[in-house]
Write a sequence for this structure.
């Protein structure tokens, strides 16, 4: 794209504005004020304007001066213009060098900033990788713990089932023991009752035996008396 060209009037007006603001009229100051253009061309236009203006003023003065003074004045004017031009070129070169130096510094700073940013990004990437690895290891540990927990839950379920079965068996055993105890109590009561009946029967049998024995002794005594009497009767009959 072709750079924008500014008219001489625009450049000269910008130079006058800089003079009114007590600022030095340089190519870069003109460029900054009008918003573009080649600093060398802008300064050349301004210098041409200044030369023309001063030449007109000198010509006006020269009409009132002697020829030798006017000639010396012209030489002095040309020397001043050459010196001004040289000074302008020197200042322009210095400004360009300063601008280039600032551009190099800015570029160096930008490279350093980018290098630091790259380092920080690398460090951040390393940190992220470490965190992801730790997260993976943590997830594996959690999965392992969950598997162990699941296994323990299964073992607990089996133990609980066995405890339930043992509880049921214990309840049944207690029920069976209660039933057996009740049967034993009934058997014990029946045995005791039978023993009491047997003891009563034995006592009654002993009593009856005593009665029968008493009667037997009486019969024996009566028989002896009968025998004795019969024996005496026989003896009497024999005599």
């Amino acid at each position: 794209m072709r750079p924008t060209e500014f008219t001489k009037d625009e450049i000269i007006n910008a130079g006058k504005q800089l003079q009114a603001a007590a600022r030095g009229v340089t190519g870069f100051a003109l460029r900054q004020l009008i918003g573009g253009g080649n600093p060398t061309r802008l300064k050349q236009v301004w210098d041409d304007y200044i030369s023309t203006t001063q030449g007109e003023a000198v010509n006006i003065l020269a009409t009132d001066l002697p020829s030798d003074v006017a000639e010396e004045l012209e030489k002095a004017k040309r020397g001043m213009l050459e010196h001004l031009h040289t000074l302008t070129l020197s200042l322009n070169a210095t400004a360009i060098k300063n601008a280039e130096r600032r551009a190099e510094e800015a570029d160096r700073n930008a490279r350093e900033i980018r290098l630091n940013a790259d380092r920080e990004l690398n460090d951040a990437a390393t940190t992220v990788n470490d965190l992801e690895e730790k997260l993976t290891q943590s997830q594996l540990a959690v999965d392992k713990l969950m598997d162990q927990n699941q296994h323990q839950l299964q073992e607990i379920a089996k133990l609980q089932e066995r405890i339930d079965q043992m509880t049921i068996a214990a309840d049944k055993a207690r029920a069976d023991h209660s039933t057996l105890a009740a049967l034993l109590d009934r058997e014990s009561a029946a045995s005791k009752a039978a023993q009491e009946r047997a003891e009563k029967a034995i006592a009654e049998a002993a009593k009856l035996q005593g009665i029968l024995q008493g009667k037997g002794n009486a019969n024996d005594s009566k028989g002896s008396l009968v025998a004795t009497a019969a024996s005496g009767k026989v003896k009497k009959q024999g005599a």
